[in-house]
Fold these 4 entries.
Entry 1:
Amino acid sequence: MYMPLAVLTRRARIAEIVLVWAASWACRILDAMVLSRLFHLAGGGVLLSDGSQSSFAAVAAKMSPGSPALFARGILCNWLVCLAIRMDGRTESAAVRALLIFWRITIFAPFAELYEASKQSRVHIFAENSPFDQKDRLKARGYRWSDGSDGRPKSWWIEVAEEAMEDELRFLRSDIYRWDEADPPVQRLTAFDRFRSRS
């Protein structure tokens, strides 16, 4: 953000902005490599043990867009950071600066989390033809009853993340149906399916 403004106000040349950008990106890649190595040497915490699958799935989702999209996201992220620094720098009150920092955290972080969550695939699992005496157990696990009027099968059903689908199916086969060959219906949902209005 600062370098384009410097070029527009004739305080810097285009060659200088390219040099600064290249050096900035190179240093950030080096920083990421060093930080990753230190993190790995320290044991990695839950990211490399119990929470590895969830962490790797989140990383894979962030890396799934093409190179142009990732490059554009990096530029936008840098512009937001520069804008935040500029907002703080243009005020003389420490209280206002603290308020601006708090505002950015409370506004941008939740929306970023909601955006990431909206992109994750989820599934509906229907415990169709499940034994009647298991209804309380299904309800306690979070299943809801569908009477079939909304197009869903007439059965108990639950919505889970796609990563948790196999665990949920395993629970149904072992604890509810008690039959390893049971094949409960599964409906995969996209963000569009989850948030569109039902007629």
Note: The chain has eight helices and four strands.
Entry 2:
Amino acid sequence: MNAPWLAPLALVAGCSTTGGIARDDARAPPGRSVTACHEGFQPSGDDRADVTRLARACGAVARLGPTRTVTQTADTPVTRFTFAASGGDCYRVFAVGGDGVVELDAMLRGPDGRPLARDDDSGGVAVAPLAASLCAPRDDTYAVDVAVTRGSGRFSVELWRQ
């Protein structure tokens, strides 16, 4: 996939690019690729613990900030938070829905607000970018959007540096 909104992604040490998305399969746990780390993941019913377990299964190195737990209501269809990215570092978002969450989506947005990566899998687990880490070309502020698109209820989300 080669889209103009992927231009801000950079090639950094330890990452190669495919269509502008930084790839970092070398950091996956033994026997698993970064792209397949979420396949077959079974939530236990504890979304706060599950999101950390998912991130670790995907080779995440360092959680940035606390686990955010949100209950989606009709008044809050999308939860957004921002983070200060360091140039050359690679990032990934992990989210796991609790009871009642059928479809959970996550998106990373660049400093200009344009979408850079999103979870395009179905289900109550979201990983963005799905097949790689997003590597920031320079220090800047990025945003993460998470939304329950089918069902309702609580979800937990974490941002990790890969």
Note: Confidence is low (pLDDT under 50) at residues 1-33.
Entry 3:
Amino acid sequence: MTTRHVSGTIMRPSVLPAAIIALACACLVGATAQEESAGNPADGWVQDTAFGAPKAVEWDEDLDQDGLDHYQEFLAGTHPFVADSDEDGFWDGFEVTRGTDPTSPDSYPSSEVLGDVDCDGQVTAADIQSVINAALGQKVAVPTDLDGTGNVDSLDIQTVINAALLVP
């Protein structure tokens, strides 16, 4: 049996929790007491790949591209390799900037303005661009299925454009 030492933690493959095994390409290892006392609690995080040795994750990296670097992910309690930790449709970084809890699917930004997908209180070019990008298959930080059909299409694009034109 191979034993690896990572950030002061002994990892034996036969005793790894099932949840970590399920994440074969990425796992997190807690910080050591020495790292915590040095003021760097997230230094113990590692990216573990099936193709090589663990690699230390840099503080300023944002591997899931959700707008939060690893240190911010650690502080927020979100997953550094998943853009939407609570699966509510809003990326973690977006929720933090809007003041909602990125770890709770019951806490998410909202707006009373139809077509305001970024929940800033108005329909702008940014809202239109988000819907168009989603319709083109690109990943976006906010839910853009305005008509609730389960996919983003030309009707959603038309809805957000009309909403932008109706601004008083």
Note: The first helix runs from residue 18 to 22.
Entry 4:
Amino acid sequence: MADKEKKEKKGFWKEFKEFITRGNVLDMAVGIIVGGAFTAIVTALCDNILKPIINWIIAAIVGTDSLSEAYTFLKRVEVDGVVDLSQSIYIDWGTFINAIINFLLIALVLFLIIKALMKVQQMRDQAKAALEEAEEKRKAEKEAAEKAAQQQAVAAAAAPAAEANKETTAAEEKKEAAKTEEPQPDPETK
């Protein structure tokens, strides 16, 4: 029973090693790491650059100098006549628009990356198919050359035999002709 469990464990670790070392898993791991780093860049861009611009545009549309009108308050808490955002309940439209832009930027970049990878995969498949086709063509040409060489060898071997056969046939025909031409008795000798 213990031997069977050891074999199963070895088989499990062997399969796990094969799974980990396959190219697709490594590519996926690199993609996840790069995607995480890129997401951090896009989030920083959206939070620190785009969100203030979006809030400024919303404030300009609403027509106020403060961001307090850029929010939709569900519960407004004011401290000393100033809105306390930490205690208020509100909808931050700038953050919502920022999240949409963040999503669209990440989706666009992922689309471009996937499109490039698919193009590379397509080129790889085409190259592989071309190599296989060239290999098949080379094999077919080699087989045709071998077949032609065999036919030439057979023809070369058959030529002396055919020549000898012709000579034998010609000699046999002469003998037959000589037999059939028996001398006729001369009528004057009678």
Note: The chain has three helices and four strands.
